[in-house]
Design goal:
The complex is a heterodimer. By secondary structure, chain A is α/β, with parallel strands linked by helices. Helices cover 39% and strands 26% of the residues of chain A. Chain A contains 4 helices and 6 strands. Chain A has helices spanning 26-38, 56-71, 83-91, 104-110; strands spanning 2-6, 13-21, 43-47, 51-54, 75-79, 100-101. In chain A, helix 1 (26-38) packs parallel to helix 2 (56-71). The longest helix of chain A has 16 residues, at 56-71. Chain A is globular and about 30 Å long. Chain B is an alpha+beta fold. In chain B, a hairpin with a 2-residue loop joins strand 1 and strand 2 (31-32). Chain A binds chain B through residues 22-24, 53, 55-57, 59-60, 63-64, 66-67, 83-84, 87-88, 90-94, 96-97, and chain B through 536, 563, 566-567, 570, 573-574, 577, 622-623, 625, 628-631, 633-634, 636-637, 640-641, 667-669.
Chain lengths: 115, 669
């Protein structure tokens, strides 16, 4: 897995993991999200459009990131999950925890107003 | 430039290429002699050494080893040799000798300006050194090499006799060009001990005279020390009084001695290598012969399936198995373990085979088989001061019992399919070779469809893990119970895999023999047993195997849906990861089990030997969106993806996970 970052002033940062977010790679995503929380990012979008596989370690990394951001007053939303990721989020009921959007534009438009 | 110089460049280049697979170039007063190697681009240190007329020894550069010889200050020729090769076997000496000889040739030729007799002489000596270098490659035996050396030396320097003495492990060996025996060879060696150069007759005469060596009264004598494989040696030239040795002869003898030392060295190394190769070759033949003693295929008996495995700890071993079909259509199986390992034990396995096949295999009672074998082999085993443990098993088609007898062998394992438990049956007599008249009683044991009988050697149960833990009968039972629905051959492979995982990287210390017989029809399900080290890397392999197996299967006449495969593999991944992290706390261990694919569902049974799994109750509660937990999603996912996800702690300290996903019960999408 690799992680692409897109940070622009005045708009939410986009974190884009590419590949498989699993036991071997999840800590990289967790560390990236915590780092952004430390740096005071308010709104972060994790774009799952390039994630072909996510397991429970990947889900844990997303929850850790969410908690870190929330504690600093920020928030985290997800975009473009593949069916496998969506199944995993639904089965663990994390689809009720993360705002999930079909496109990045919608996440940017609606993101900041959500809990 | 003289034509003969080009010839010698060519000659030496050829000799050098033959010895080192490299090439060389000759320079006189800085000018390249045509006929040598085409000049490559030299690395800077080589170029500098050539320009400064300084020597360069075995420099590693440009993926080659380089040498540059310095011009001989005593000769005016200004000859330098630049040579390169792929490796260095002490070639520096040879190059220096060649360089000195060439210098003298150039010197002589420039003063005499023609082919004087001295030049011819020098040329002969140069070709002599070339011939000497070639001898090294022609003989594998040191004696032959040294004989060739004295013959060649006598021919070239035309002396009365050449005497070469070397110390061998079993005393002094001497070689002469005349073929005459050298009296008191050790005296000649002692006379030059400690000398750094050839000594003249006057210098060694007192010592030779004192010891009574007739060489003291030679016409003239020149002798120089050698360093042989078993200690010091000597090389001497002998002439009549009318033909005295001069300075050139001294120089020649010194350089020849250096080369003879190198030849002795090379011949010794080669002899050692050839001896090892011969031994290795003999072992290979022995291993091949031993494998030929094994039955080509195991007997085929209705309603039964047998498989076997043998792996010696070394090339050959003392474990052995044999099998014959009985007149009644049943099978008689033998598994034996000769005490000890390697060749001595292997030789006795041939005896076991011969006696079993020729004298015992027609007996119907396993106890009789052992009794006959013991009586027949006792004298040999007694003389060899060794013994053999063996077990003989007799199985008849559709019988409700089997018979076995064991001569001090490790327990026979019996898997009871109906109850899913294992039994161990003890030995019924002494090992073979202990008592000439020992009695071995056969025991009859009930048998039914679904049962398995497993014969093995102690190399299985006594295989040691990294912490010294033995594989044990527990290891064997664990693998059998985790893989029992698989075929006999697959189960044997699983046991072997289990041993490999248990040993980790430790070497095999004992021979391993296994024989397994399954009774009853094989199940219609597709069963894939597996044994893996509790490491992430092996999980990836398991998941890929599962993906292939399920993906290639059809359910209700239709190929597996991709999401169905994905979801099962994700659940499997979560459970195995859980075993690695929680049961084994990431410290490694062994996970074994099986995938079972039927027409309407996929199942996995996974066993580990780690700590009890005790998840917090909160893992079963729904996730609170306001405060979602950071861990514990693995089991939630697996439970949600599967139709069945059960965990049991088994009494013997194992954890059992049972995963089932039904093809129709797709969870989502």
């Amino acid at each position: 897995m690799r992680i692409d970052l897109d940070r622009q002033k005045g708009s939410p940062s986009v974190v884009r993991p590419v590949g498989s977010v699993d036991v071997d790679t999840a800590s990289m995503l967790r560390d990236t999200l915590r780092q952004m929380a430390e740096e005071g990012a308010e709104s972060v979008i994790v774009d799952l459009g390039e994630v072909e596989f996510i397991d429970s370690s990947g889900l844990s990394a997303l929850v850790s990131g969410l908690k870190a951001l929330r504690s600093k007053g920020g928030m985290l939303s997800l975009t473009r999950p593949h069916p496998q990721a969506l199944t995993a989020l639904r089965l663990t009921m994390l689809d009720r925890v993360f705002p999930i959007f079909p496109t990045i534009e919608e996440a940017v438009k609606q993101g900041p107003s959500l809990p | 430039m003289e034509r003969w110089l080009g010839d010698s460049a060519h000659l030496l280049g050829e000799a050098w290429a033959g010895l080192t697979a490299g090439a060389l170039a000759i320079y006189v007063q800085g000018a390249l002699v045509p006929g040598g190697a085409t000049r490559p681009s030299y690395p800077p240190p080589v170029r500098r050494a050539l320009e400064d007329h300084s020597p360069l020894e075995a420099l590693r550069a440009s993926r080659r080893i380089w040498w540059v010889t310095a011009p001989d200050p005593a000769a005016g020729g200004g000859v330098q040799i630049v040579a390169w090769a792929a490796e260095d076997r002490g070639w520096g000496t040879l190059l220096r000798t060649w360089s000195v000889m060439l210098s003298h040739l150039v010197d002589v030729s420039s003063t005499a300006a023609g082919l004087t007799s001295e030049l011819i002489n020098a040329w002969d000596r140069l070709t002599f050194l070339y011939d000497l270098a070639k001898i090294a490659g022609q003989h594998s035996d040191l004696g032959e090499t040294l004989e060739a050396v004295v013959r060649l030396l006598a021919r070239v320097v035309s002396v009365q006799d050449v005497v070469l003495v070397v110390a061998r492990p079993d005393g002094f060996a001497s070689f002469t060009s005349t073929g005459k025996e050298v009296p008191l060879p050790e005296v000649l060696v002692e006379s030059v001990t400690g000398a750094k150069r050839p000594l003249a007759l006057e210098e060694v005469r007192p010592a030779l005279e004192r010891a009574g060596s007739p060489l003291a009264w030679s016409g003239d004598l020149l002798v120089t020390p050698l360093q042989g494989p078993g200690g010091p040696g000597a090389l001497a030239l002998v002439n009549p009084p009318t033909d005295r040795f001069d300075a050139h002869d001294v120089q020649l003898l010194a350089s020849v001695a250096e080369q003879v030392n190198a030849l002795i060295d090379a011949a010794e190394t080669r002899a050692e290598r050839e001896k090892n190769q011969r031994l290795e070759h003999e072992l290979e033949i022995a291993a091949h012969l031993q494998s030929r003693l094994l039955p080509l295929r195991l007997p085929e008996v209705p309603n039964m399936k047998a498989a076997a495995f043998l792996r010696p700890a070394r090339r050959v071993g003392g474990d052995f198995y044999d099998a014959v079909t009985s007149e009644t259509g049943g099978m008689l199986l033998l598994l034996a373990d000769v005490a000890g390992k390697g060749m001595p034990a292997a030789l006795l396995t041939a005896l076991v085979h011969a006696v079993f096949i020729s004298e015992a295999a027609d007996r119907t009672d396993p106890g009789d088989v052992l009794q006959v074998m013991n009586r027949r082999m006792f004298p040999d085993l007694d003389r060899a001061e060794t013994f053999i443990t063996a077990v003989v098993l007799r199985l008849e088609p559709h019988a409700s019992t089997f018979a076995y007898a064991s001569a001090g062998h490790v327990d026979v394992a019996v898997w009871r399919g109906a109850e899913e438990r294992i039994e161990f049956l003890p030995a019924s007599g002494l090992p073979l070779g202990v008592e000439p008249d020992a009695v071995f009683r056969a025991r009859s044991v009930p048998l039914q469809a679904g049962d398995e009988v497993i014969l093995y050697s102690d190399g299985v149960t006594e295989a040691e893990g990294p912490n010294g833990a033995l594989f044990g009968s527990e290891g064997l039972s664990a693998i059998i119970s985790a893989t029992f629905p698989a075929s006999a051959a697959e189960q044997i492979q699983a046991i072997v895999d289990g041993l490999d995982v248990h040993r980790a990287d430790r070497p095999l210390r004992d021979d391993v023999a296994l024989l397994l017989v399954k009774v009853g029809d094989e199940s219609g399900d597709s069963v894939h047993p597996f044994v893996l080290p509790a490491r992430r890397a092996s999980v990836v392999d398991l998941l890929e195997r599962a993906r292939q197996a399920i993906g290639g299967h059809s359910f209700g006449g239709k190929p597996a849906e991709p999401y169905f495969v994905d979801e099962f593999v994700l659940a499997l991944s979560e459970i195995v990861t859980n075993q690695i992290q929680h049961a084994y706390l990431g410290q490694g261990g062994r996970i074994e089990g099986r995938l079972t694919i039927s027409s309407d569902q996929v199942g996995a049974d996974l066993f580990d030997h780690g700590v009890l799994f005790d998840p917090p109750d909160s893992d079963r509660l729904p996730v609170d969106p306001a405060n979602p937990p950071e861990r514990g999603y693995g089991l939630r996912l697996a439970r949600a993806l599967l139709d069945e996800c059960g965990y049991t702690r088994i009494g013997d300290g194992r954890n059992h996970w049972r995963l089932v996903k039904r093809a129709k019960g797709a969870t989502t999408l």
